[in-house]
Amino acid sequence: MRSWLKEWASYTESDIGDGNGHAILITGYDHKNPDSTASKKALAIAHSAAENRLQKNNWPKLHFGENGTSAPNLKRHLKFVKKGKVPLTYWADDEYDEPIVLGSQSWEHGESGHSQTGINELDAIIGRGHGFTTVKPLKLIKKIIQLWCPPNGLVLDPYAGSGTTGHAVLELNTTTGATRRFILIEQGAPERGDKYARCLTQERLRRAITGDRPTVTGKLKKMAPPLLGGFQFRILTKKIDSKTVLTMRKDELIDLVITSHWENSRRGGCGLIRIEQEGYKYLVGRNEQGEGYFLIWNGGDKVGQLDQTSYATVVAEAKKSEMKPPYHVYARYEIYQTKNVVFYKIPDKILAHLGLNENSDSFNEVEE
Hints:
By secondary structure, the chain is of the alpha/beta class.
């Protein structure tokens, strides 16, 4: 790295006292006095040298973007890329010849396509006026599927949009003989009268399979080769509301309690760890601090209440499992109160943890 940097300007190593070893600084720059005359002069000399080097276009292996202002990047020529290496986290759009096989590290735009390509593909199968302005191209999604999903695997797209993922799976299965399956989930935006999951997403997949395409007059005609495969289109009939939560079975409700804390894991915590051992009546999970989570179940098919009797069971199970207070307790009502309990009223707290507001959330829109 030092040798690559010297092709831009003069750099030296210096201990700046951050405990991370020597830093590479511009020669003459004083990090303790960045506004000094010497520091400003050193920066000006380095800037001029780097600008001159930038204008030559044939940059060193280590570069700082087209304008010289981005984070350091390593230049990799496609001819030096070894097939079969783990792909990097970028796709270049340099003017390379499109390889016959799947590229292993870098994809140029001719391989992965543009958003406009995706729009054109959607226009061709659905017709114009669909309202989508950013559609992923089939080439890109097919490459991602090939990289991450085995030929007999399952592809899940929880934000299906126009259905490009399902279309890509169908094409790959037809052309390569793979047997991948897909699950697409799309809510649409019913508060705006938009139910495109039915009228667009599933219609695109149907036409991909049948080969139907719209003519200039809008009529459907078989104008494309049909794709192998099929799919089922289903609409959720249950609303995510308090009534649904209260009618859940115990194992379903435990799953929901664990899932409702998933957001914490995305923000650096580990969420809840489910307790799988038998012998516990109420204990269902624990957090990374060793605090137990309990679901009060009345022994039948309904959520129970926190009272002295159920609290005594919570304390006994916490002692048995070596859980320390506070005890996080989910129950329908709180009849008994103690400073050792953090109480979560069902279903209110669960819906709140999931980010759902029963009065306004679109999950509760009535479907046909």
